[in-house]
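Minutes, structural biology subgroup

Action item carried over from last meeting: produce the structure token record for DUF3016 domain-containing protein (Solimicrobium silvestre). EB confirmed the sequence was re-checked against the source entry. Recorded below for completeness.
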Amino acid sequence: MNKLLLVVAAIFISCTAFAGEVTVKWQEPEKYTDIQSGDQDKGKFEADLFKNFDSIFAELARKLPDNTVWQITVTDLDLAGEVRPSMRGSGVEMRVVKPIYRPAIMFEYKLLDAQNKVLKEAKVDLKDLGFMSRPASIIGRDRKLYPYEEYMIRQWFEQQQMQKILPGK
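Output recorded by EB:
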């Protein structure tokens, strides 16, 4: 049993040790277009929000070549929807998602090799004007905190790799 665990651990470590890495910097989030928390504690909301997006970028980085580092600096974020007071007079604020409140994100990135040589760098300005026209099955709304934003980022990343702008494994 111990040998099996050791083998599984060795495989896991060898797979992750060479995967592309990512660092995400959230530059001046107080100036972002819309990361309003509604009635949640602002600090906790932002920490959870950034952690969620960090994990999205980390998952995508695993598709980059081994021994690369993807440095991302997020310069603006506009979540889908808008925070509004509840219509029932309860004083509760909630995020209302309508087609006119599209998701958007702006970031700069550098992709570095093992010697810190810049392989690729760019400024990215993503907006998804048709975000509500997709079937729920494509977006995968189930249990995702930011399905529209995640879909938009994943689609961009896949297009970058298909067009050989960002290298794959």
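Discussion: The longest helix spans residues 42-61.
Next step: EB to file the record with the rest of the batch.
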